Amino acid sequence: MSNPSLRGLQAFEAIGRCGSVSAAAEDLGVTPGAVSQLVRNLEQCLGLTLLERRGRRVELSSWGRLYYQEVAKGFQQLSHAANVLTRARNETGIVLSALTSVANRWVGRKIFDWQSLCPESSVRILGQEQEPRIGIEQVDFRITYGRRAYAHEHVANLFTDWVVPVCSPALIANRVLDGPQAILKFPLLNVEWEADYKASPQWRDWAALVHADGRQTFSGLSFALSSSAIDAAVNGRGFVLAQVSMVLDEVASGTLMVPFDIRMKLSESYYLAWDRTALEKPFGQKFHKWLIGIARQQELLSAPPTGSAT
């Protein structure tokens, strides 16, 4: 069987979509006779009858209905591909997707530095837990974590974060903490990510690091989002093992404090993924370079001071 002509497929798809030969001809800007001839050529190529006459009407045969379902999908995909190119050409703004907590507590804070650097640029930040289909959905760049990064074609390592116990100063006001183990006597807030991530360090891990009593049990309130657990700590609800990148501002302002700076490293890194066409946008390459740059700075800020316990 030879490959059918594109014009024949267009004529057949138009009949199926428009419902008649005359409507298909008007849609394509040709005569009804031309449409009929193109479909006859297609039928000869396939060796099948695609159209059946019912009086003065033409309907798809059983073979025609089956074939139309698949042909229509192909034309829809072609239309989608054209829309993707049009959007990429016409939309000059940058769309950055990031995990919700990263969007709220890291890059969402850094973006003001970018805006000062490039005030003419336009950036939209999306907080998303599910991985977007970069290049198909309206996303140019994606900040994600761990193995999920490898679902994307173009990927670069950003930084590996660390966690450290933080709390509101009000939580321990008028209390004496005689050592790191004393933290474990306070309410403990837990961060439990989705199952397809490698687990972040938990309180039992930190307790082992500071040589606490191994018989102690750990319970408390758990949050799926790091940012929610940090918000609870800000409100004086307990200690949380917070990612350093997400609490630097609060610690600097005194909203949160670090009684004992004993950090644990996350098991995986954050990554940047991008669509190749994003680099062709105005400011696209510069934005990519800027994200990599602030991540390198964060790598140094998140790591424990030289010589401290980890």
UniProtKB/TrEMBL annotation:
Gene Ontology molecular functions: DNA-binding transcription factor activity; sequence-specific DNA binding
Any Pfam family the entry gives: HTH_1
All residue ranges annotated as the HTH lysR-type domain in the record: 4-61
TM ranges: none
Entry keyword set: DNA-binding, Transcription, Transcription regulation
Entries under PROSITE patterns matching the protein: HTH_LYSR (PS50931)
Entry-linked InterPro entries: LysR-type_TF_proteobact-type, LysR_HTH_N, LysR_subst-bd, WH-like_DNA-bd_sf, WH_DNA-bd_sf
Top-rank taxon: Bacteria
Any single biological process term in GO: DNA-templated transcription
Protein family according to the UniProt entry: Belongs to the LysR transcriptional regulatory family.
Name of the protein this chain belongs to: LysR family transcriptional regulator
Organism: Ensifer adhaerens
Phylogenetic lineage: Bacteria, Pseudomonadati, Pseudomonadota, Alphaproteobacteria, Hyphomicrobiales
